[in-house]
Amino acid sequence: MSTLSVHGLTRRVDLFTLRLFLTVVEERQIRRAAIRENIAASAATKRIQDLEDIAGVQLFERNPSGVAPSAAGEVLARHLRLLFENLEDMRRELGEFSEGVRGHVTVGTTGAVIIQYLAREIGEFSRNFPLVELELKQDANTNLVRSVVAGDVDMAVYIVSPDIDDEPLDSLPYRVDRLVALVPHGHPLGEQPEVALADLIREPFIAMHPNTTLMSDVNRAARAIGRVLHPKFTINGPEAARSLVEAGLGVTILPECMVSLEASTRSTVLRIPEPWTTRSVRIGTRRGKTITAATRALIRQLTEQPEQASS
């Protein structure tokens, strides 16, 4: 057999033969692969033999039931899968010039991020790109990185937190999420524009569900100052928390953008001047993976939104 040469490989092997090779790897039998690719079995066998001669290595181990890729064959198959993925991406991107951006994008995120930012912005994206089908999957913030890596979603919009490791992602900033305190009108804490967490959690505290990133942050900050939070009420949504505050039943912490102008007239909003209350929201895709034109268009629109849109 000859020595493998990239120059020789690209000049002497056509894409159909490379596709046939991958089909043989999948089917583990040349005859079945030939049927799938609509080619005579003898012609398929000849192409595989020629490919092995050009590669200079044995690509398949022959056995009574068919064939199995050798170690060298597995390496070639891995690179060819990437090659054909890139060719498909190229086809889609070239198709944009005549067809417009189209495709399907699955976004994983939390309920809070949907309410705060994505609902409005995805609606605008759908109007701008009507050929793109969008799917939202709501999940806990701690599950989002795993969903991207597993391929369950194309991208995640997640809150940076010590609870998650986003090293497997290519990510970029999306929004800054600030937490504020809400206290009833006339409450002594409301006499100043800001409040420390230590003072806030001495009051009857209205907490969100303990599995939320918000409550993880609050509990972590409380432990850092040697305190344990004992909520008076635990509820599932910001609307209920605001209602309880307005009724004078306690205090709470919410993302600033979830406190509407109307709500701020019925209770007092206070800054919490501590670093943990400023949180980064990021967009992540699987590290090193080529993203589709539709995903790229969505990321571009989300990251080009002005910061004040989240307020």
From TrEMBL:
* Entry keywords, A to Z: DNA-binding, Transcription, Transcription regulation
For the HTH lysR-type domain, which residue ranges apply? 18-70
Q: Which InterPro entries match?
A: HTH-type_LysR_regulators, LysR_HTH_N, LysR_subst-bd, WH-like_DNA-bd_sf, WH_DNA-bd_sf
Q: Name one Pfam family in it.
A: HTH_1
Q: Where is the signal peptide?
A: none
- Single GO cellular component term: cytosol
Stretches assigned to coiled coil: none
Q: Does the keyword Membrane apply?
A: no
State the family named in the UniProt similarity comment for this chain: Belongs to the LysR transcriptional regulatory family.
Q: What is this protein called?
A: Transcriptional regulator
